[in-house]
Amino acid sequence: MKVLVTGASGRVGANMVRRLTAAGAEVRAMIPPGDPQAPKLAAFPQVQVVEADLGDQAAINVACKGVTHIVHLAAQLMRGDTPVDRFYDINAFGTLRLLEGAVQCGNRLERFVLTSSDGTYRPGAPPAVPLTEDVPQLPGDYYGTGKLIGEIVLRNHAVQYDIPFSIVRFATVVSPEEAAKIFRVDFWRTMLGWHRLGKDCHLWPLFDGHPELAPMYEAAVADAAPDTAVGLAGPGGEPWTLSLVDVRDAVDGVYRALTEPGALGRAFNIAAAEPTPHDEGAAVIADLFEVPKLMVELPIRHQLELSIDNANRHLGFRPRHDYRDMVESGLAMTGTDSEFIPANATSGVAATWQPR
Ligand SMILES: NC(=O)c1ccc[n+]([C@@H]2O[C@H](COP(=O)([O-])OP(=O)(O)OC[C@H]3O[C@@H](n4cnc5c(N)ncnc54)[C@H](O)[C@@H]3O)[C@@H](O)[C@H]2O)c1
């Protein structure tokens, strides 16, 4: 198979390129012009790297020439100061341009895999616990809506041009060296603080309707050192829950969506086997880093949990990494023999967290 991977230098993308080349696939890696993460791909001299922005139809057409499979990972993720229309232009219309490129290149595509998100389920106010693929997708932010339109655009093209496709919806993807940042004072401060951006908020509007929680959190962590292990709990101390997925499992899910016959025409949640309860996540950090653990009790309980039964049944997807394993893998990371390419690596491997 000849596979075009978009977003090939990203958190998932570089690891996807590695998986595909190891499986003997011919890989073309698409990155945006001037991509600072491009050096990650230097480890794969056999991979053809093409520069194309998802806004540039002519460049996309060149990138699509001759491929039999497409793994579409490129996306606009963080809000920052990104103009909001860019979420639609890149995540929705960028997907359209890529599909048009695939159609115009004249080859018969054997599979198009779109990576979508739990953001399409409105993570700030999930419609079900756990979330299955058939619950209503009613996102309330630019990112989630852009990703959902991308799904719809794909389904439309699949009907129009008979494109075999599959959709994966990731939980929060964690590269192991990033894992120890979660369940810390600052992580939840940032997540819960998104509400301050008001209408500009995207990704995780956990304060969907609950801006009062931010000052409560601040009061509870006021005396805590920045590296304190922190989890959130609802009334009575019931922990919040969060589905994560290790980047290695995320890649495995996409690979299966690309190659398994049972993937055709279906959408799959891709997450760890179990969601992580906040008390367990904070306990992992407290244990491995020998820091105090703090549970912050709030008046609501939030549960963002993805069911992976569908992926289990149709793809044989069996994620191998829980939160403890993600953190331990990040700590054990050495040199270039690591099992994964770190998200922030510009060449080889970079360690970000060390135990005290
Ligand atoms: N990281 C997560 O927690 C998460 C959760 C749910 C879904 N997803 C989805 O998974 C996919 C991969 O995410 P990731 O974590 O690897 O993200 P990432 O930001 O590490 O990688 C995204 C890549 O897209 C590329 N890109 C951005 N804008 C582009 C443009 N205009 N033209 C061409 N390329 C462009 C970037 O260069 C980057 O390498 C994305 O589609 C994302 O929406 C990620």
From TrEMBL:
Entry superkingdom: Bacteria
Transmembrane regions listed in the UniProt entry: none
Gene3D superfamilies referenced in this protein's UniProt entry, alphabetically: NAD(P)-binding Rossmann-like Domain
InterPro entries in the cross-refs: Epimerase_deHydtase, Lipid_A_modif_metabolic_enz, NAD(P)-bd_dom_sf
Residues covered by the NAD-dependent epimerase/dehydratase domain: 3-271
Signal peptide: none
Protein name: NAD(P)-dependent oxidoreductase
